[in-house]
Amino acid sequence: MSSDSTSVASATANAVAALARLREALALPPSVRVLVTVAHKMIKLRKPKAGNEIASSSLRPNVLACNRLCRWVAPHSDIFHNSILEELPLADVLKLFDVMLVSVEVKTQENYGTGCLRFHQYCDSHSIPEKNRMPASDHLLASFVTSLARKVAATTVQNWLAGLHFWHNLHGAPWFGHT
C-alpha cells in the first residue's frame, strides 16, 4: 500500500470517527439546556397513534418531537457534518448546534418537530427518496403544503414550514421554500 493510499485511508477513518462522535454528541442534550431536558427525560416515548406512523429509518430515530430537529438527519447531513468537522473542532461544532437549538423555545421545537414528522410522512406516502428530502425542492415543499389545505390551519402550515426551514439550516442545506 502506498503512502498516499495509507494517508487517504487514515483521513477517511478519521472523518468517519469524527462524524460518529458528532452524532453521539448530538444525541445528548445540549449543556445549556440541561434543566429543560431533565423534565423531558421523564416522558416515555409512546407508540404512534394509528395514522401517525412513520417508515422506520436509521435517519429518523424514535425521539421526542423537540429532539427531531437535531436527531433526524438526511444523507445531506453527513456531507455537511463532515465538511464542518474538517474546518472546526468537535467542541466548537457542538457549541454552534447548541446555540442554534437554544435560540428556539422548547415548545417551538416541539411544533417544528411535528412539522418534520408530517413532512416525512408525506414523503413516505409518495415514495420520495431520502436524498430528495433535504434539500427539499420548491416543488416538493409546495406539494406538501397543498396536501395540508383544508386539513390544518394556515398558521400550523406556516409553523411547520418554519420548522422545515430551521431543520435545513441546522443541517447546512439550502432552503428553496422562499415563496
Automatic annotation (TrEMBL):
GO molecular function, one term: DNA binding
Domain of life: Eukaryota
Keywords, sorted A to Z: DNA-binding
InterPro entries for the chain: Integrase_recombinase_N (IPR010998)
Protein name in UniProt: Uncharacterized protein
Organism: Suillus fuscotomentosus
